[in-house]
Specification:
Length: 59
């Protein structure tokens, strides 16, 4: 099994990081592979209904 952890906090080493790190260490101790991703620096937004995905056929 593999678990992917995402940290969306803008603080790279903030409380969310420390909480996820505890979870990740527990999972690793059980032999579960983990992948950690910090996405707090990324600008994310939802669908704006531009229909580009329909035009490009990747909906």
């Amino acid at each position: 099994m593999k678990v992917v952890l995402f940290n969306g906090s803008p603080r790279k080493k903030g409380n969310t990081y420390h909480c996820l790190n505890i979870v990740m260490e527990e999972l690793k101790a059980e032999g579960i592979e983990c992948d950690y991703n910090w996405i707090g620096r990324e600008k994310l937004q939802g669908c704006i209904a531009c229909n580009e995905c329909i035009v490009n056929n990747d909906q």
